[in-house]
Design goal:
The protein has 150 residues and is of the alpha+beta class. The chain is globular.
Length: 150
């Protein structure tokens, strides 16, 4: 259930197609990387996530617990897990200089984990830092939110 917990509490968002990793330099490059990172999660692309996530990742889940890179990636790539497409609300991509930036949004993450449907509303913040000539995610914070009646 460890993977399911990470999935339910983790970050997400973005189009199903994975964008190419963009070089560092502009806010558009940062936004492209943020899109690619979100898409890699939904697509369960372990190889992309291994490249995109810093080895010293700090991942704070929706319960406030701190985890690292392996837990985060395992949570997104469980063999019995499947994700529905997501739509981001109130998205912000903010460069914080040449070597850092963040992306934040609200979304409803849904799908199936171990054959059981799930649905959770979250707000996430991903903090990126420059690593060579590309970006990596260094910090992720997830906040669970109440799902309002539709």
């Amino acid at each position: 259930m460890r993977g399911a917990t990470a999935i339910l509490l983790a970050i997400v968002m973005a189009p199903p197609a994975i964008a190419a990793e963009a070089p560092v330099g502009t806010g558009a490059d940062l936004a492209s990387f943020a899109d690619a990172f979100d898409a890699a999660q939904i697509a369960q692309d372990r190889a992309a996530l291994e490249r995109m996530v810093a080895d010293d990742l700090v991942f704070i889940d929706g319960s406030g617990k701190r985890y690292g890179k392996a837990f985060f990636i395992d949570g997104w790539t469980g063999p019995d897990d499947d994700y529905d497409p997501v739509m981001l609300k109130d998205r912000i991509v903010l460069p914080l200089g040449e070597d850092a930036g963040l992306a934040s949004a609200e979304t409803i993450l849904s799908g199936r984990s171990a054959g059981k449907p799930f649905r959770v509303r979250i707000r996430f913040t991903d903090i990126f830092r420059r690593h060579g000539d590309s970006w990596q995610v260094a910090y992720i914070h997830v906040t669970r939110m109440t799902i309002e009646q539709e």
